[in-house]
Amino acid sequence: MGKAPRPARTASRIAAVQALFQTEQAQTSAETVIDEFVRHRLGELPGGGGFEDGRVPAAEVPLFARIVRAAVTQQETIDRMLAEALPAEWPLARLDPVLRALLRAGAAELAAANDPPAKVVINEYLNVAHGFFSGEEPRMANAILDRLARLLRPGEFGL
Predict the structure, then answer these.
(1) Are the beta carbons of 46 and 88 closer than 8 angstroms?
(2) N or C: which end of the chain has fewer CB within 10 A?
(3) Which pTM does this prediction carry?
């Protein structure tokens, strides 16, 4: 099985962040949101051109679903790790909900098997963060995910 093109993997991560935001805001289950995204928000609409109306046309459904499921089922552990990685003056609840969803998705991928490498995961979520934010949030996401990666995958950093 070959690797999916990078744009599809990035789109999967964008959709996962959107879905995790929705699970938190609407208090719905991961499976409900995954099903809704697969039926209504992923893939091309006939005659459509892309990201209109919250669609993520190039998303790879298996990767999207794996990230969302992992982030939701491991949320308690992930949130504990994020709370420890955040500066004391920035409790998890104070973060923008989209940034919180992005960090949960990134942490879920970093906690999974070593494919893709941690630096790739961090770079992908940094790119996603730049798509959602124009302020300091991408830098914060980069720093937090780097801390988590060094904790979860120390072998990749020569520690």
Answers:
(1) no
(2) N
(3) 0.87
